[in-house]
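User:
I would dearly like some help making sense of a protein record. Take your time, and here it is.
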Amino acid sequence: MGLLRLTFWLALIVAILPTDKDRQAQVISAFSSGTTWVLTFCDRNGEACKKGSEAWQVFKTKAEFGGRLVATFVFDRQPAVEETRSTERVRMDYPQRRRDSQDRDIDALLARRY
């Protein structure tokens, strides 16, 4: 699916590119000036870049903390789950609902497999 999307977007970009030499020169000029404008943003707006850098540092700190929190949660609880799996089966109680023929078919498949 991703290859299909990539092909679609590339085809769309190629379709809107101009064929006339004058228009091609205009597109190249606009692209070059846009690239220069983006690359020199911090030269023109030092304060905004400083605040953006500070915000990025805060974001990175929070992301690192979140990653450590998830890793601690996953890896600290892993042995308990493995011990339970190896010694006995855990039965999970779910709220009762009406069972239909599809449920019975799935139960039969699972019974044969396990």
Helices lie at 2-16, 21-39, 41-44, 46-87, 101-113. Residues 46-87 form the longest helix (42 residues). The mean pLDDT is 82.
